[in-house]
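go over whats below:
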Amino acid sequence: MLKHRRLLTWLLALACVAGAAIALFDIQTPLRPFLISLFLLVVPGAAVVGLLRDRDPLAALSVGAAASLVLNVLLAQAMLQFNAWSPRAGVATVAVLGGFMYVLRVLYRGKSMQTEQGARAR
């Protein structure tokens, strides 16, 4: 079961990377709408779910989905408000924010791991 889950995670990550590349390099393909939408919905949600460790999985998934939609809507509203509509910039912004949240997750886990090790040493 764990092997299938890991394979599904890698396939989803690969599809998201493909969606970002398709949007950024303006590649025309029949899968373009699906892959770009997948990227825009999965990346922010997955980043938020990663920050919500040790929570109820259903609650974390719900918060991740809501955060993904909120982030995309706020980004679109801001781009329209400032007359700066650009699908490429939107995808790049979502990628940067997702990467930033991933770095926060890694730093947060590193801090908690050090705290746990310090508590064990006492």
In short: The longest helix spans residues 87-121. The chain has four helices and no strands. The mean pLDDT is 89.
